[in-house]
Amino acid sequence: MDQLARRLSTADAVVIGLGAMIGAGVFAAFAPAAQAVLPTGAPAALLVALALAAAVAYANATSSAQLAAQYPTSGGTYVYGRERLGPWWGFVAGWGFVVGKTASCAAMALTFAAYAVPADAPEPWRRLAAALAVVALAAAAYRGITRTARLARWIVTFVLAALAVTLAAAWAGRGPAPGAGPVPLTAVEPATPGDWLGVPQAAGLLFFAFAGYARVATLGEEVRAPRRTIPRAIGIALAVAVVVYALVGATLLAALGLDGLAASSAPLSDATAGAPGAGALVRVAAAVASLGALLALLAGISRTALAMARERDLPRPLAAVHPRHRVPHRAELAVAAVVVVLVLAVDLRGAIGFSSFGVLAYYLVANVAAFTQTGRERRFPRALQVFGAAGCAALCLTLPTTAVLAGAGVLAVGVAGRALRLAGQGPPAP
């Protein structure tokens, strides 16, 4: 069987995970989450939702790290579910991941185009720019995983530096926009108990921003010393992302208030509207961060598709590994082709909720699989897996109804397709 080459260090794995998280979270998740908690009238409710999402993400990360140390191969929870629970569990995890994250790829490509293309440009030009971005990054990934890691390192470094400048400008009083004063985070307006149900929904939407550390586990066949590297890289990437998100969330709330954040389509730009040149920096940083997230997503999805193809849960030709570059080149090309079709033909403004549903289902399986580990395989207490599984289920159910229905429908289609394929094969030969 074709195998991938182990070329990634701990630092490489960390930046690939960060690249997937920072681009998605900072520029895409805060405004819809603010809309969910808006009925509470409490700006701090958004930070509570962020803390809840981070807690569930941490529990999921410990499960992923524990499983990846035992099964250091491509595929992430698709492999873990098959090994610990059975083929059907693995398929649900893998299918949810591939479908949800393919939609996320399209959303990241369209986010790049929204910031990189002038606002007055026709919509077809934006979609074309998004498609070209997918093609360019797929070409970079095709050349090898070390090129992917090197590009991700530059992207993450630039985005973090740009965010530092942007947040400093906002706190220095040069933003927000004229006429909008700073808002205390402790301000609370009258709210009914039902209004606070928006907090777990916001946490489910913000979970989208933390899902990038899954890229580290899906690259398990390409990291050096995986039993040590994968758990360490997952922990570092998640810790850095939590700190960055907390700083950004507090800054946006202080500058724009909950109402302003919920109504904004580009909150970081609005928060620094009074600072000369800050808007341009934010646009560049958002475009670059979106490319970083897209690059990491393409790498992660193609590795899960590779693992599923090896087990014939996806077409077998997708299991091929390039003889020179040692990457799943057919899977990468197939994923890129699907994403290009999506960005050219589909409106994906609701992709965050849909993606969160698929990824939460993925991590639900990861927590259940990790719960079954015993002895030397166990690195974390089972209580974390119980909390992680319960958190995933709860956040799934509190997502917007359209996201829940769409996610459940797509999972059902995948399960039905696999059942039909197995039925067509007939009983195994004696």
Description:
There is one protein chain. The chain is 73% helix and 0% strand. It has helices spanning 10-28, 30-37, 44-70, 77-84, 87-116, 123-142, 145-171, 198-210, 214-218, 226-263, 267-271, 278-310, 329-345, 351-371, 382-398, 401-425. Helix 1 (10-28) crosses helix 7 (145-171). The two termini are 26 Å apart. The protein contains 16 helices and no strands. The protein has 430 residues and is mainly α. The protein has one domain: Amino acid/polyamine transporter I (Up-down Bundle).
Short summary of the structure?
Helix content is 73%, strand content 0%. It is an all-alpha fold and 430 residues long.
Question: What is the structural class?
Answer: mainly alpha
**Average of pLDDT:** 79
- CATH topology-level fold name: Amino acid/polyamine transporter I
CATH architecture, by name, is Up-down Bundle
Radius of gyration: 21 Å
Shape: globular
Number of domains: 1
- The helix content is over 70%
Low-confidence segments: 174-181
| Strands, count | 0
CATH superfamily: Amino acid/polyamine transporter I
Strand residue percentage = under 5%
What is the CATH level 1 assignment?
Mainly Alpha
Task: Give the helix/strand layout.
Blueprint: H1 10-28, H2 30-37, H3 44-70, H4 77-84, H5 87-116, H6 123-142, H7 145-171, H8 198-210, H9 214-218, H10 226-263, H11 267-271, H12 278-310, H13 329-345, H14 351-371, H15 382-398, H16 401-425
Helix pairs in contact: 1-7, 1-8, 1-10, 1-12, 2-8, 2-10, 3-8, 3-10, 3-14, 3-15, 4-5, 4-14, 5-6, 5-12, 5-13, 5-14, 5-16, 6-12, 6-13, 7-10, 7-12, 8-14, 8-15, 12-13, 14-15, 14-16
